[in-house]
Amino acid sequence: MLTARSLFQEILGDDEAYRLFCSIAAGGEAQGGWENGRIAALVPESQCHLAPKIARHGADEDKHGRIFNGLLRRRGLEPCTVPAETDYTMILERRGIGLPHTRLRADEPLTERDIVVYLAHSRVTEQRAADQMDMLTRHFSDHPEVGAAIRIICADETDHLAYCHEELLRLAAAGHGRAIQDLLRRSALAEIAVHRDVGLAVMSRMGRILRWPAAKSAALTAGIHALYAYERLGGWRRMVTLRMPERRDALGGPATAAPEFV
């Protein structure tokens, strides 16, 4: 039976598939670290209180990238080049979601609107990350090789999502409510399509590495399309709702330590 658990077990059991998985994850996390670091450096004066939290967000993402690279080193593997069609972060940017890298490479301070765009984009993508890490935690939190890494990353993603909810609600109360809802909707609808396309690209490459039979590849392809159909029909709404998190000021302190093997 095809399940998320069985698929991840297959990936864990094959060095080349594992190398691809960890390389894609490490690349995305490192990119997120750079983006948050630049945003923290360019925060407008009106939102200067956010700079330490954005920097903490970036430090967490950098840590996650180091964790995935550390997992590779534990097996004696080197990261591989991330195929362009699997680069979730850059594909989202090309779709106009989030702040463009040309804006972040400039030294001009961001605007308050830019911060709203950043937080709306983060609220959507952190929902995806939190959902995925929750799934991995349910099945692999006690795994001797990846369990510690999964638990740490899952806790961080939960904090990142809480931070996005809290700060977007604060900005909504300050008069940005309509813009936030518009940005969340646009980001979510773009993200579910990008998630589908990246999922298909990753599964295609995994299928070649693991020599899946045609029937198995077809079933996985159908499953990815079915998930997209569900999300397009209404599942995307979980990415745009806002509620005050139980844990307030989730990014108010320093980043937690990486595992010893990093």
Describe this structure in words.
The protein is mostly helical. Helices cover 71% and strands 0% of the residues. The chain is built from 8 helices and no strands. The radius of gyration is 18 Å and the shape is globular. The model has no long low-confidence stretch (mean pLDDT 95).
Strand content: under 5%
Low-confidence stretches: none
Number of strands: 0
Please tell me what the overall shape is.
Answer: globular
User: Nearest-angstrom radius of gyration?
Assistant: 18 Å
Share of helix among residues? over 70%
Q: Please report the distance between the alpha carbons of the first and last residues.
A: 35 Å
Topology as a string of helices (H) and strands (E): HHHHHHHH
Mind summarizing the main beta sheet?
Answer: none
- The total of helices stands at 8
How confident is the prediction overall: mean pLDDT? 95
Structural class: mainly alpha
